[in-house]
Amino acid sequence: MTGAFDRPSYALAADLDRALGDPDAADGPFSYAEIVAHEENDALPPDAVELIRSWGFAQYLVPEEFGGGLRNLEQLALLTRVLARRNLTVSVMFGSALLGVNSVWLWGTEEQRARVARGMLDGSLACFAVSEPDHGSDLGTNETSAARDGDTFILTGEKWPVGNATRGRFVTVYATVEGLGQSLLLLDKEQLDAGSWDNHPFVKTVGLRGHDLSGITFRGTRVPEDALLGRPGAGLTGILQVLQITRTAIGALSVGTMDSVLRIALRHAQERVLYGQPIHHLPVIRRHLVGAYLDLLIAECTLQPVTRSLSVAPSRLSLWSSVVKYLVPTLGEEVVREAGLVLGARSYLREGVASGAFQKLQRDHAIASIFEGTTHVNLHGIAAQLPAVARVAQRPAPGGEDILRQLFDWSEEAPVWRPAGRALRLTNATEDEITRGWGEAVTRARQVAESELPAAEGGALVTVLDAFSARRTAFYARIADGALDAATAEAQDIAAEHCVHHAAASCLYTWLYSFERERGSAGGTGWLVLVLARLLRRLDPADPAAELDEGLLPALEKLILASLDGPEYFSLRTVKAAAGAA
Questions:
Q1: Is 125 helix (H, G, I), strand (E, B) or coil?
Q2: Three-state SS across 235-296?
Q3: What 3-state DSSP class applies to 156?
Q4: 193 Cβ contact partners less than 8 Å away, ≥ 6 residues apart
Q5: How far apart are CA 131 and CA 138, in angstroms?
Q6: pLDDT per residue over 202-244, tens digit each?
Q7: Where is the Acyl-CoA oxidase/dehydrogenase middle domain (predicted)?
Q8: What CATH code is assigned to 238-581?
Q9: Distance of CA 75 to CAs 61, 226, 263, 322, 431, Å?
Q10: Between 8-20 and 48-55, two packed helices, what is the crossing angle to 10 degrees?
Q11: Distance between alpha carbon 320 and the CA centroid of its chain, in Å?
Q12: Distance from CA of residue 211 to its chain's centroid?
């Protein structure tokens, strides 16, 4: 993560990475050996949370505007990726805290923001008490109620399951408030009457062992009137908007997991000798490892610009956050599966390779597709917006060039996030520069292919772009000309394909805006051809353009191996640095 291309956020993440240490080391609270040993007892390693707090992680949950260190969501995603690379359980603990306080940053009063900021910076946690045992994601059905009693409310109801419900001091509660409707309330447990509420035992889970997934019951709990958070009666809208931020951030959990499992599998493939040679030389093992690495690059290209959009174009998050929440964890699941195939029988063991950490990572990552809206919920949200997007998909968005450059140009960090609930919306309408900029981007890519690239590489790029363009044109025309019922299985498939087109465009823009100096060098464009072919394969495995170009693979494989034991992540920034040095 270090180098000439790093900006302050990357340097900050590198500092955290050093503080946590080498996960393959024999000791330390973030070593695989310690993590796995304590997970056997449903616990976190002693001193793990304290180490994170002493490093100062909590300040990056509090925006700069309110006295913390959080500059933007891109910064927090980079830090989360570092943490998730070791221990998803600890990452989710802090992620649940972020979810619990984001409503305060967006809509809180000056006093609410100041009190919560002080508490978070002092080490307190928070939770988002929305789900109920009988209703799950049916947010329209909410049995928790708050009845008026003078200048207070009497709160009654049960919320479960809730991350940090027991450990959290601050509780953002979704309740039906008498005379106001569905609203959010900000509670501070330190100010609640003892005996008027209680926590549930931790839920036993397959993964994330040691995480506080519990619940809270209110039994006539007296709550001050100034606990109201945001606009009265707008609780459901607020939930849908705040989830856009954490849905995006979840992508960092997946990318961190991808980095870890790929690293574990690749190291095993180098050390494991069969038939007289390390197994990474076997064609089938090679295919799994290369495919997993390309999926990680795709996930990174998809995630990073959407984290930046919170500061650049927050109104787009209603659609873009769902794309990230569906596609990145899906890619993560596939990378875990590819790594498991490389490990073979050892993927099933809770000891041995990497101290058995692969099993933990596999179980922990399964949550990524479930919380903050399941895969089906996010695909439904995408499908509901696609007709409007499809009708303008062939027309560049006004001002799109400026927004795309801010999203995809790494030479500048994302602007500082100034939390404002009014900036988030429930629908993008036709605002989707990532979809609408494809045509112009392909034209520019063709010009680069003709003027800057070797003939073979330029030809391969044009071939895969043409294949994508033909499919894309027909895809959006079909949606624009018909009616799409978002509740159908067909709509889910259509939404999933849109996510692939979104990812392909994101990869292309990353190359155009952040590889301007490197794209003519060795490795500076080959990665783009390979990831586009990999994405095309998801749509049509039989398309000749979906075959990985064997001539482009050796340079990529060399880079993967070179990154294995160095400080760098498996990342496009490593690809960029290598191309720049070529």
A1: coil
A2: HHHHHHHHHHHHHHHHHHHHHHHHHHHHHHHHHHHHHCEECCEEHHHCHHHHHHHHHHHHHH
A3: strand
A4: 221, 222
A5: 8
A6: 999 999 999 999 999 999 999 999 999 999 999 999 999 999 9
A7: 127-219
A8: 1.20.140.10
A9: 10, 32, 23, 20, 25
A10: 150
A11: 11
A12: 19
- Neighbouring-strand partners of residue 70: 63
pLDDT one digit per residue (tens) for the chain, 582 residues: 333 344 589 999 999 999 999 999 888 999 999 999 999 999 999 999 999 999 999 999 999 999 999 999 999 999 999 999 999 999 999 999 999 999 999 999 999 999 999 999 999 999 999 999 998 878 889 999 999 999 999 999 999 999 999 999 999 999 999 999 999 999 999 999 999 999 999 999 999 999 999 999 999 999 999 999 999 999 999 999 999 999 999 999 999 999 999 999 999 999 999 888 999 999 999 999 999 999 999 999 999 999 999 999 999 999 999 999 999 999 999 999 999 999 999 999 999 999 999 999 999 999 999 988 899 999 999 999 999 999 999 999 999 999 999 999 999 999 999 999 999 999 998 999 999 999 999 999 999 999 999 999 999 999 999 999 999 999 999 999 888 999 999 999 999 999 999 999 999 999 999 999 999 998 999 999 999 999 999 999 999 999 999 999 999 999 999 888 766 779 999 999 999 886
Pick the CATH number of 126-229 from 1.10.720.60, 2.60.40.10, 2.40.110.10, 3.90.76.10: 2.40.110.10
Helix (H, G, I), strand (E, B) or coil at 54: helix
Q: In terms of Cα–Cα distance, which of 247, 263, 363, 256 is closest to 300?
A: 256
Tokens encoding 322: 């769902």
* CA distances in angstroms from 192 to 47, 107, 189, 361, 563, listed in the order given: 30, 22, 5, 38, 52
* CA separation for the pair 278, 573 (Å, rounded): 28
Could you give the CA distance from residue 98 to residue 220 in angstroms, rounded to a whole number? 27
Count of residues making up the chain: 582
Where helices occur in 315-431 by DSSP H, the ranges are 317-343, 357-365, 375-391, 400-408
Q: What is the DSSP letter of 350?
A: S
Per domain, the residue ranges of the chain are 8-119, 126-229, 238-581
User: At residue 185, what are phi and psi to the nearest 5 degrees?
Assistant: -125, 135
Q: How far apart are the C-alpha atoms of 335 and 287, rounded to whole Å? A: 12
The class level of CATH for 8-119 reads mainly alpha
